[in-house]
Design brief:
Elements lengths: L2 H28 L6 H15 L6 H22 L7 H22 L3
Length: 111
């Protein structure tokens, strides 16, 4: 799987995870309908399934995915919650992307 497809799959996976956690949060913290738990469960199921689509070891996938998740979460903070990311938020995302790149580069080396 090429790098761009993997990254796109990670972004979709992160959105599924965030939606799966955000909907129960709305129910618990903002008195929204408990019916939100149904799409939340479906979203978390989709998240778990999407992680299985990667052709490498699960632990490495989860580690690399973590960097993309953090980036998408900060983007969610801005676009959904309406809170502008701080400089330290953006630096943290950059550090996570560097870590993710190291993990992916190491996975490509014969070992």
């Amino acid at each position: 799987m090429d790098l761009l497809k993997t990254f796109a799959l990670f972004v979709v996976t992160a959105l599924a995870e965030i939606v799966g956690c955000y909907l129960p949060w709305l129910w618990l913290k903002q008195d929204k309908s408990p019916w939100l738990l149904l799409p939340a469960a479906l979203s978390l199921g989709l998240f778990a399934w999407l992680l299985t689509l990667h052709p490498t070891a699960a632990g490495r996938v989860y580690a690399a995915y973590g960097g993309v998740y953090i980036g998408v979460a900060v983007l969610w903070l801005w676009l959904v919650d309406g809170i502008s990311p701080t400089t330290t938020d953006l630096i943290g995302v950059a550090v996570c992307f560097v870590g993710m790149g190291i993990i992916i580069a190491g996975a490509r080396q014969p070992g």
